[in-house]
Automatic annotation (TrEMBL):
It comes from Sporomusa ovata. Residues 3-83 form the 2Fe-2S ferredoxin-type domain. The keyword Iron-sulfur applies. This is Periplasmic [Fe] hydrogenase large subunit. CDD domains: fer2. The keyword Cytoplasm does not apply. One of its GO terms (molecular function) is metal ion binding. Keywords: Iron, Iron-sulfur, Metal-binding, Oxidoreductase. Residues 164-193 form the 4Fe-4S ferredoxin-type domain. InterPro entries: 2Fe-2S_ferredoxin-like_sf (IPR036010), 2Fe-2S_ferredoxin-type (IPR001041), 4Fe4S_Fe-S-bd (IPR017896), 4Fe4S_Fe_S_CS (IPR017900). Its EC number is 1.12.7.2. Gene3D superfamilies: 3.10.20.740, 3.30.70.20. It is an enzyme of class 1 (oxidoreductase).
């Protein structure tokens, strides 16, 4: 049987499933926390940095990634503070370096989080992964369905997503579209082969 616990969110008591992480628990109660690298069926990876909340511990409020935070009885959470606004804005600025994106809804969310600071387009440039925020959802989904054909390649400024190097990648990719369907930025179009090889990640 599902174990339920009580948490306090913005001063309101909520009954949530103990098996959920905080982001999922908040979403289940209709509390909207921005998040671009989270998908319920996949292990959280905390790469977008948007889902910040504050929790009360050791007599102070501490910022945490809601997607990585386990629900526990009595947990006190705040979802709206000036500090959270700053942290989300900062994370959004970094992600916006990958502009332009194919998913305008996701891009609008990021622009809203930085509150117009990017209007001149000056601050946010210089990404080598145009259109992709390196959230890794495509890799995690590809692993989850047992194909495991995608991986991070390169390091630092050259970090990118690509097909696992080696013989026979074309044959085993399978074009199942699972990565395309989960990509929050609309990058994988028309398919993985095109997105990761032909368009951006050509060596
Ligand atoms: S291609 Fe899409 S899903 Fe994959 S890392 Fe980039 S933004 Fe995330
Ligand atoms: S959803 Fe938590 S860091 Fe992206």
């Amino acid at each position: 049987m599902e174990e339920l616990v009580e948490i306090v969110v913005d001063g309101r008591s909520l009954t949530v499933s103990k098996s959920a992480n905080v982001l999922q628990a908040l979403r289940d109660h209709g509390i909207d926390i921005p998040a671009l690298c989270y998908y319920p069926a996949l292990e959280a990876y905390a790469s977008c940095g948007l889902c910040m909340v504050e929790i009360w511990s050791n007599a102070i409020w501490n910022p945490r990634h809601a997607c990585l935070l386990e629900v526990e009885d009595g947990l006190q959470i705040t979802t709206v503070t000036p500090r959270l606004q700053r942290l989300r804005s900062w994370a959004a600025k970094i992600l916006l370096r990958g502009r332009p994106f194919h998913n305008s809804e996701a891009e609008d969310l990021l622009l809203k989080l930085v509150q117009g600071e990017t209007a001149d387009g000056q601050v946010l440039s210089g990404s080598t992964t145009e259109g992709c925020i390196l959230c890794g959802l495509c890799i995690r989904m590809c692993r989850k369905i047992g194909k495991n054909r995608l991986t991070y390649l390169g390091r630092g400024k050259n970090l990118r997503i690509g097909l696992v190097p080696g013989e026979g990648n074309k044959a085993t990719c399978g074009n199942c579209s699972a990565c395309r369907d989960i990509c929050p930025m609309g990058f994988i179009s028309p398919d993985a082969e095109h997105a990761f090889k032909a368009r951006l990640y050509k060596e």
